[in-house]
Amino acid sequence: MNATHPDSSKNAKSTIALSKPGPNGGISDRLQVIANGGSVPAEIHPAILDEDSVLDIRNFRLWYGEAQALFDINLSIPRGKVTAMIGPSGCGKSTLLRSVNRLNDLIDSVRITGDMILNGRSIYEPSVDVIELRKRMGMVFQKSNPFPMSIYENVIYPLRIDGERSHGVLDEVCERSLRGAALWEEVKDRLHESALGLSGGQQQRLCIARAISAEPDVLLMDEPCSALDPLATNKIEDLIDQLKGDYTILIVTHNMQQAARTSDYTAFMYLGHVVEYGPTETLFQKPLLQETQDYVTGRFG
Amino acid sequence: MIPTAAKDKPLNDSPTNADPTAPQRRAQRSTSSLLAYGEPMLWLTGGALTICLVMIIGLLVLIFYQGVSTFWPAPLVQITTIEDRTFMGEVTREEIFAPAETVFTQLAPEVAEQARRTVAANDGTAHRWLVRIGNFELTGDHFNWFSDFMIRDERRPEWAVTVERLSWGRFYGIPAAFLVDGAVVVDTSAQAWQRYKAHHGEIRKRWRQRRHLETHAIGKLNRQEEAARLDMRTALLEHGPDSARYAAARERLETVQRKSEIETAQLREQINALNTENSRYQLRLVTADGQEKNLALEEIVRAFPANRLSVTEKTAIYLSRWWEFFTDDPREANSEGGVFPAIFGTVVMTLVMSLAVVPFGVLAALYLREYAKAGPLISAVRIAINNLAGVPSIVFGVFGLGFFCYFVGGTIDQLFFSAKLPSPTYGTGGILWASLTLALLTLPVVIVATEEALAAVPGSMREGSYACGASKWQTIKRIVLPRAMPGIMTGMILAMARGAGEVAPLMLVGAVKLAPELPVDGIFPFLHPERSFMHLGFHIFDLGFQSQNSEAAKPMVFTTTLLLIVIIASLNLGAVLLRNRLRKKFASGVF
Ligand SMILES: Nc1ncnc2c1ncn2[C@@H]1O[C@H](COP(=O)(O)OP(=O)(O)O)[C@@H](O)[C@H]1O
Ligand SMILES: [Mg+2]
User: Fold this and answer.
1) What is the pLDDT of residue B4?
2) Left if phi > 0, otherwise alpha if psi is -120 to 50, otherwise beta: which for A92?
3) Ligand 1 in contact with A90 (CB < 6 A)?
């Protein structure tokens, strides 16, 4: 934690200097530089440095085979807050998110350098037990992926694989998680029916219930609402509001309003680079960079 | 067609000089070829499907009709030929043929002339009937052809009786008398038949009792003696001829032998008593050509006056024949009686095969799909597995004989059954080796189907499981396998269908024409995987092509085929229902 501060503050200073001609100087010089394969340091608001960070991403780079997907990512994710990642599709948001719980290990071609520090401990050291690590995180995917089993078994899946047998504990966790995911009232009478019979929105909330049932440190959400209707989206946004505080939430979204409504901090990414990272309000109202302004107001992307 | 092709030419140039050609292009496109409308393809594809269906349905209808009609009691006809010989029997088949001149030259001159005239009046063709005349010990024939020009008279005698016997095939005749202790008690057809009906039931009961004593009680004594003898041999082999153990074992054998000698004598007495009682009753039948024959009632399995039967009685006989077919052992070189041992063998073998092939196939597919890193080696393995499916099944039979029977079975014999050597226990064909051979044969089917099912499990589900902190095996066990289960079941169904219908390899690894003992019975240790067994597929082959009385066996071929098809279909249906239940469990109702 301490180690990152000087680093990111340096970055912040240097980019402020660089960005001076930015706001009034035509369309997105930085994005042009990035698109041409150059590297531009991220613009990181100093407000973040005051937060207690739960996850530090340091000089993280990632390649899919020969193609580099992430370039020198430096982010610190504040504890108990909602951090949103926005950016045009293909910019590496999902990749970054999946790197946090090392889901990218499943892809043979992936190579990384750099590190991520969760609660002061490295995620990518060889000695790390990946399964233990994933147990401390919950993940919600873009496409809901309930398992082919009952609603009940879906929710308590993380406990099942830990070998929890006590019915008391399982029932209690199931109810708490479903209530947490605002699904309890809708499914409490059909807990033992197949989860695949639920509607799309219900399935996604079920996946959220599953993700929080083991009380993870960090909740990762990859465009959790992209396949849902507005009503279901509202429910899930309310849910994120309620969960904030208890959980650190990292959410990827392509929906500006959603990022603005639900998150405390927002990172704007472009082609594998973090362009600007700061408190959501600032980022959306008076960002340091013209590029960010353009993106959040929908002028490109 | 040709004009269209010619018009196509400018089309190719048109993109370069865009605007002027645009309207023309639209005009040209409106002339579509006949093929484009799809009608010829519709006829072609539909026709192909129809031909397939017609062939399959035709085959099924033929098998079904023949199979179902086999057991219907046929009426008896009495035929007198122009040569003044009389026969009686069941008409089994008829056909139209053109008699060659040799047919007439064999006849006496005056009747030959008459026959020639009849045939000539029919444009040189004649009708003939194949009649099952039975009475093999008197006629030396089971069947005879009768051509229409040869028949002078044809009648259906009221009291003609069909007799199904334990041996010598069927007997056809008219009851003349009923005999008790060799003396005639009654001497009219009706009365004799009455007596027959009164006595036959109890006599069959005594016969069954006798058979039970012979096979089970005496068999048990023999087994005890055999076991004691084996113990003695084992003691001799392990401890030498001078050892105390050997002496003790020999002592025991002698005790057992003495005891069994006494008990056997008692049993023999009982059996003799039953025999004597049974042999008192006889039915005298007169054949169509006037010969008399006394049949012991004990020898008669079933008899009925074929021409006097009402539909209800016919139905009763029909059903009782089916019942016998399902539950009894075969007799008369398999052409009569039942096929119960074959049904049992087929079902047990198929189930054991499934039990062997499914776990192995699924594990192999799991490794290939889930654990192995994709590469040339894995591709080669996959190709090899697919090719395995194309290897002729007899090759598997040869392999099974060499590997399972001789190598594995021989080794087992040497290790555990050395006392019985040189007569093999496991070192020869048996139901276990047959099942394993077929498991090997159907392994590719299961592997390929399972691999496909595993590949069809969405990656998102696996990722979801991993993201919850599941290990690879937990993910496979809890998510991938349940989700792939319907596909795996499909593989099993295909394997069962393939395996249950396979005959060629079985002939090498344990299917036999007649197996006196079932592989599962009440004798310790209840399961006898080393025993050879009967199989419906092999039974069909044996009936149709190995039988001396092939004409009599022919209807049984159809019936047995029908039964085999029904059994395979119901095994499959069971598996399909199971699969559908699984499918329903995972039925997705997204949005
Ligand atoms: N499994 C993969 N193999 C190779 N390239 C990938 C893979 N997944 C994503 N990429 C590439 O990485 C880049 C970032 O993708 P992603 O993280 O999914 O973007 P986002 O979620 O921001 O839309 C894209 O260029 C994409 O093509
Ligand atoms: Mg994405």
Assistant:
1) 43
2) left
3) yes
Of residues A101, A149, A200, nearest to B590 (C-beta): A200
Q: Which ligand is nearest to the CA of A226?
A: 2
Number of domains in chain B: 4
Q: What is the tens place of the pLDDT at every residue in B8-26?
A: 444 444 444 445 555 555 5
Q: CB–CB of A106 and B586 under 8 A?
A: no
Q: What is the span of the domain harbouring residue B109?
A: 77-156
Residue B331 is assigned to a structural domain of this protein: no
Q: Please identify, among B131, B156, B181, the residue that sits at the C-terminal boundary of a domain.
A: B156
Tokens for A287, please give them.
């960002």
Give the integer Cα–Cα distance in Å for A124 and A58: 11
CB-based contact B303:B200 (threshold 8 Å):
yes
CB of B105 within 8 Å of a chain A CB? The answer is: no
Residue among B40, B36, B31, B35 nearest B11 (CA): B31
Vertex A103: Cα angle to A100 and A106 (nearest 5): 150
Do B484 and B563 have their domain in common? yes
Q: Per-residue b/e over A47-72, b at no fewer than 16 CB within 10 Å? A: ebeebebbbbbbebebeeeeeebbbb
Asked if B375 has any chain A CB less than 8 Å from its own CB, the reply is no
What is the average pLDDT score of chain B? 84
Q: What secondary structure letter does DSSP report for B511?
A: B
If you measure from the C-alpha of residue B558 to the centroid of ligand 1, how many angstroms do you get, rounded to a whole number? Answer: 63
Cα–Cα distance between B339 and B536 in angstroms, integer?
8
- The token duo for B406 is 């001789």
pLDDT 10s digits, A205-257: 899 999 989 888 899 999 988 877 888 788 888 888 888 888 899 999 888 88
B582 to chain A: closest CA residue: A148
Q: Are B142 and B214 within one domain?
A: no
**What's the confidence (pLDDT) of residue B28?**
58
Last residue of a domain, one of B37, B69, B101: B69
For A158, the closest of B373, B469, B586 (CB atoms) is: B469
User: Does the model's pTM come out above 0.95?
Assistant: no
Are residues B260 and B368 both part of a single domain? no
- CB A35 near ligand 1, within 6 Å: no
CA of A96 relative to ligand 2 center, distance in Å: 9
Residue B423 shares a structural domain with residue B515 = yes
| ipTM > 0.85 for the complex | yes
Q: Are residues B147 and B177 in the same domain?
A: no
Q: Is the CB of A93 under 6 A from ligand 1?
A: yes
Q: What CATH number did the domain enclosing B457 receive?
A: 1.10.3720.10
B488 vs B357, B359, B491, CA distance in Å?
Answer: 11, 10, 5
Q: Are residues B420 and B565 in the same domain?
A: yes
Of residues A106, A149, A199, nearest to B482 (C-beta): A149
